[in-house]
Amino acid sequence: VAESPSSDLIEVFSAIQGEGPIVGRRQIFLRFGHCDVVCRYCDTPLCHVELPECRLERRAGGREFERQANPMSLAAIETSLERLAADLPHHSVSLTGGEPLLHAEMIRALGPCLKSLGLLGYLETNGHLVDELLRALPALDIVGMDIKLESATGFPARFDDNRRFLAACVDAGLDVFAKVVLDAATSIDEIDGALAVVLDTAAQVPVVFQPVTPFRGVGTPPEPEQLLAWNERALRAGAEALVIPQTHKMIGQK
Ligand code: SF4
């Protein structure tokens, strides 16, 4: 008998999706702990520290939390999802982090719960961990895959991993989009590299350019002219190109 998985969580709460093509949808956010990279602009410092406990919202959007010890069992996570789902209709569950695919077994195990609640599984990932994606597939419907650029993150891009990851998403029939966080220091070569990942693999996949939101003074958003020029480059290359900033931060949502 397989052991039931357990996971370190940061938090479970209800909020408005602020990024990407389904911006504005109400979601339950299941924020997993830990990450396999360190992006300079990361706004989730808790994903890089020990997590003795997590916080679980008591009522959808109420911003009152109870604390529970990590690691959390499958049953405990299901209970926290069921509580928020019973409170309010949600569009989907955002499986986010940290890097949620470090918890692929847990995500896979959550599949039946998401289905029984009638909620789509929406994965937000750095797009590196292909084997883990394949494990998690039964719980997934929508995938937001980052293509990370060195000018924004501070570490080298992993375009080959991104290509394999995107191909696996497309093969599995997932509704996938690519998200590229852009900084004023981003170069045209990086833009072209990110576009090639998508255009060589599955040209119909939307590519969302997201200007970096400075966090604790780190990150410099591109100038309006840079965004227009990069968007033009994407369109001329044949990409399904969108530009969407992080809207939740504009409206004071986390
Ligand atoms: S991948 Fe996401 S969670 Fe991990 S360091 Fe980068 S921004 Fe933070």
Blueprint of the fold:
Elements: E1 6-7, E2 9-16, E3 26-32, E4 53-57, E5 65-69, E6 72-73, H1 74-87, E7 92-96, H2 104-117, E8 120-125, H3 130-136, E9 142-146, H4 150-153, H5 159-171, E10 175-182, H6 188-201, E11 206-211, H7 224-236, E12 240-243, H8 247-250
Parallel strand pairs: 2-4, 3-7, 7-8, 8-9, 9-10, 10-11, 11-12
Antiparallel strand pairs: 1-6, 2-3, 4-5
This protein binds iron/sulfur cluster.
Can you tell me about this structure?
The protein is 33% helix and 25% strand. The chain has helices at 74-87, 104-117, 130-136, 150-153, 159-171, 188-201, 224-236, 247-250, and strands at residues 6-7, 9-16, 26-32, 53-57, 65-69, 72-73, 92-96, 120-125, 142-146, 175-182, 206-211, 240-243. Strands 5-4-2-3-7-8-9-10-11-12 form a ten-stranded mixed β-sheet, with helices on one face. A hairpin with a 7-residue loop joins strand 4 (53-57) and strand 5 (65-69). The termini are far apart. The mean pLDDT is 96. The structure holds iron/sulfur cluster. Iron/sulfur cluster (SF4) binds at residues 35, 37-39, 42, 44, 47, 97-99, 126. Iron/sulfur cluster is lined by residues 35, 37-39, 42, 44, 47, 97-99, 126.
Query: Overall pLDDT, averaged?
Result: 96
Number of contiguous helices: 8
Strand order of the largest sheet: 5-4-2-3-7-8-9-10-11-12
Distance between the termini: 40 Å
**Ligand kinds:** iron/sulfur cluster
Regions with little confidence, pLDDT below 50 for 5+ residues: none
Number of strands: 12
| Envelope shape | globular
Question: Radius of gyration, Cα only, in angstroms?
Answer: 18 Å
Order of helices and strands: EEEEEEHEHEHEHHEHEHEH
What fraction strand? 15-25%
Q: Please give the share of residues in helix.
A: 25-40%
Largest sheet: 10 strands, mixed
Which structural category fits the helices and strands? alpha/beta
